[in-house]
Specification:
About 45% of the residues lie in helices and about 15% in strands. The protein is an alpha/beta fold. The chain folds into two domains: about 160 residues, Nucleotidyltransferase, domain 5, CATH 3.30.420; about 45 residues.
């Protein structure tokens, strides 16, 4: 078993199936009609507003563990070959069990490295695991805080300045590492229509995460 490996990772999420989403009821009173008096124009505007209300909820559902699901986890152990786990026929629960089994294999030794993983990736993974009655490794948390084994490259980049901005793509470009392979907001659709492209997108994020870490980590 390798001693103290680094595991670089990134997750991709999508909305739950439509039948599992609890879309809040549309309230026509929230629509600003301005000076429109024509009943037909009012009805048209309300219809468009209702359609946008549903579409916006579905589009943002992937960002919340209550309305989204994990579709892929890409990872690389040290600088070995990249790997990916996907929620295929066996579903999200099987994917999550595989992921936690990988971490448990290293018996609390791996250092987890990712971008924005404290605010998004790890909370999403844990909350979805709770949904399936799967217990994540207990050592990930130390009371109210994340374990010292969790390294968030966003925090490393900020150097203590919470106002410092920068996405993984922006920082990668700044460091001369190239860009991401697409737009993450479209991932769930890509996952359905072009699985190879979706996998390549996720693995590109893992590659950039590892390359950014190689530059930033000595300063960390």
């Amino acid at each position: 078993m390798p001693a103290n490996p680094n595991i670089y990772f990134d997750i991709e999420t999508g909305p739950l199936p439509l039948e599992q989403l609890n879309i809040p009821a549309f309230n026509p009173a929230d629509v600003k009609l301005g000076n429109i008096k024509n009943p037909d124009l009012i009805a048209e505007k309300l219809q468009k507003a209702e359609e946008s209300h549903t579409a916006d909820y579905i589009r943002n559902a992937a960002l919340d563990a209550l309305s989204g699901q994990v579709l892929c986890i890409g990872y690389r152990v040290d600088h070995q070959e990249q790997n990916i786990l996907c929620a295929d026929a066996d579903g999200e629960a099987h994917l999550l069990r595989q992921w936690w089994a990988l971490l448990n294999y290293y018996e609390r030794q791996p250092q987890l490295i990712g971008f924005n993983i404290k605010a998004f990736d790890l909370p999403f993974l844990i909350k979805r695991s709770w949904r399936h009655k799967i217990m994540p490794p207990y050592w990930l948390r130390n009371g109210r805080y994340w374990s010292d084994l969790v390294v968030d490259l966003r925090e490393v980049w900020q150097l203590g300045d919470s106002r410092a901005h920068g996405s993984l793509g922006a920082i990668s470009r700044h460091l001369g590492l190239g860009d991401k392979a697409g737009n993450g907001a479209m991932f769930s659709e890509l996952f359905k229509t072009d699985r190879e492209a979706a996998i390549n997108y996720c693995l590109r994020d893992v590659e950039l995460t590892q390359k950014v870490a190689d530059i930033l980590m000595p300063a960390y």
